[in-house]
Specification:
Two copies of one chain form a homodimer.
Chain A: H1 5-12, H2 16-23, H3 31-44, H4 50-57, E1 62-66, E2 75-77, H5 78-90, E3 94-98, H6 104-117, E4 122-126, H7 133-142, E5 146-149, E6 157-160, H8 162-175, E7 181-185, H9 198-213, E8 219-222, H10 231-242, E9 250-253, H11 256-268, E10 278-282, E11 295-298, H12 301-317, E12 326-328, E13 331-333
Parallel strand pairs in A: 1-3, 1-4, 4-5, 5-6, 6-12, 7-8, 7-9, 9-10, 10-11
Antiparallel strand pairs in A: 11-13
The structure holds a DNA duplex.
DNA sequence: AATAAATGATTTATCGTTTGACGGTGGGCA
DNA sequence: TGCCCACCGTCAAACGATAAATCATTTATT
């Protein structure tokens, strides 16, 4: 059915090996011959069989995407996938995924299968949760080119620059004249801060850096727990913050759900946003229901995806090159939840 | 490095072909011999090279996942991925994805590449938006086993049973004594209903079916437009519904964002949920900020994934078997937004 | 003019596996 | 005793490509 190099060879009267060289642009075939080969290839609708190619050359032109997730409610950002997909396609790489921890067996099996059965060229690791020691050892032992996504660590990794984002969010409010700016995070308890994702710490750290630079003091409110369970408690906490007599004029929210709590409680308390209170958040602009379009720092998912594949491709080509961690800057989306300070 | 069947052959003193037969359980080798082969295979840490296998047998044991999305804000449910992943792994199938419409080139290229370069065995198509005619023709022409996900159509497909879900949501409220039950959808305008995703029509249809069966009349409120732009308008609409003098006692919301609008406006209007108003929604229980845990009909993403892979595997084995569309029932999650009718 | 180097293509070998044709061995049956 | 057949394997080719070695021409060097 599908045309192979042998079909091309017959059609142009060459050996199939010569066709192979020609198609790959080897200097061993004459330019004129190459032209003929390309023409015939196009004519016959030839497409190289990557599978056959892989068996001999050892390069499969495919990379694995090792998935993982903390919670059942978690989503895989389509923008991240989009970035991965676009860059992979541009480089002729196929993206094979698996390894979700739903099933122990699946999880254990994916990486070995990918490498020895599939002879994949490299691995993208998308772990929000803690990285299993076993996995790290496996990577080292097999010397598989790999890049971690959305994780800050010593090895090759690509992540969003949370510190910078926290700083920029604060700076944005400072430039509008705000002096009392608070950082609010209902997604993590203060006492569990060390064990959770670095974004919880880094966004705050960036915020604090900007405040210190401006010679102002930081105010941090933390609370809540697992997402759904303590929703009432969070609502109360949000209320106590916004309806306090000397509340801040600006609030930086760690997450969209934190922001929604703040917005709703402000509305309930009759506090006008952005006139009486400026709110800036992270992630997504849509906040499902308040009617207020948030000003947010946007996780550069797409860019992270593109960068990750690019870096992995580099590591595959040059396994000995040392690849440094890459921090991708956040995007900024102006909404209607921020204003110059009133008084 | 990695052991091949030849290594096994040497170790047990057989031809490599015999080993091949033994490993695949062919009746051509004696049971005792097979045992020896398996032992040696385990000893040497043998893993079949799928790539080499594919080139000869034509079966790659891999399936493609063709992605697509309407909006930039869309997510790929991790539960769906989980279902696909688990079932694929159980069947020894690898899952290769691509084809997002970010880039025309990528999109056009993915399917042909997957099939002719990759020799993938089948295709899962995850299209929420309209299905390109070109794609359908391609599938037909190439006779690729394929299954559509989350799409209702004549060919093999797996989708959530929206009609049933709408019916069950209404029935749930009816059983609690509600008579005035409304269906609210802020995600679609009434005039665009025909052109949008069937879920918008089917959830309503199910609701209407249940109401008719109970001998009650349906009340449908639709409005809004693209998600972010008309948020204010929606908030107003929600307010007008819940603060109306003779409002319904129960509301079925098409989506979580619709539900959030309803909840917030109820809170602002001082209407107690669920005491004065019962709300039941779709999708996700978390509603980011109101503090109320919603009662919802949950899209069976995981089950859809499992079923889709299972069906595709069947179509790959038996290409001539006719596979009917499969409707997977929704899950139900009890929350705290529904109560027996007050008066 | 003889030799060396460059050029362009062919030959042969190989990757790891599957596949179909074929061949010894031994037992059952007439 | 002879014949057939089931059983258990081996052989050799094939899959679609790559890679190295080799060979036949030209073209350049002295």
């Amino acid at each position: 059915m599908a045309a192979t190099i042998k079909d091309i060879a017959i059609s142009v009267g060459l050996s199939h090996q010569a066709v192979s060289y020609a198609l790959r642009g080897s200097p061993k075939v004459a330019e004129a011959t190459r032209q003929r080969v390309f023409l015939a290839a196009k004519d016959l609708g030839y497409r190289p069989n990557t599978t056959a190619r892989a068996i001999r050359s050892g390069r499969h032109r495919s990379i694995g995407l090792l998935l993982s997730t903390v919670s059942k409610r978690s989503y895989l950002p389509i923008q991240l996938i989009g970035g991965l997909d676009t860059e992979a396609a541009a480089r002729g790489l196929m993206l094979t995924m698996g390894g979700l921890p739903d099933d122990k067996l699946t999880r254990e099996g994916f990486v070995p299968r990918l490498l020895s059965e599939w002879s994949a060229d490299g691995l993208l690791i998308n772990y929000q949760e803690g990285i299993p020691e076993r996995l790290i050892q496996l990577m080292r032992a097999e010397r598989v080119p790999s890049v971690w996504i959305n994780t800050k660590q010593e090895a090759a990794c690509v992540y969003a620059d949370e510190i910078d984002a926290g700083d920029r969010a604060a700076t944005h409010l400072l430039e509008l004249g705000h002096k009392r700016i608070a950082f609010v995070d209902f997604s993590h308890r203060a006492d569990e801060l060390q064990s959770v994702h670095y974004s919880a710490r880094d966004r705050q750290a960036g915020y604090e850096r900007a405040m210190t630079r401006a010679g102002l003091s930081a105010e941090v409110f933390r609370g809540g727990g697992p997402v759904v369970e303590d929703n009432h408690e969070r609502a109360r906490y949000a209320r106590s913050i916004v309806s306090s007599g000397d509340r801040p004029t600006g609030i930086i929210c760690y997450s969209i759900s934190t922001a929604t709590h703040v917005l709703i409680q402000s509305m309930l308390a009759g506090i006008s946003i952005p006139n009486e209170l400026s709110v800036i958040s992270f992630d997504d602009q849509s906040n499902g229901g308040t009617g207020i379009l948030l000003t947010t720092m946007i996780v550069p998912q797409r860019e992270i995806g593109v960068t990750a594949v690019r870096n992995l491709a580099m590591r595959i080509e040059e396994p000995n090159e040392v690849t440094a961690p890459v921090a991708v800057p956040f995007g900024f989306a102006a909404g209607e939840s921020v204003a110059t300070v009133s008084k």
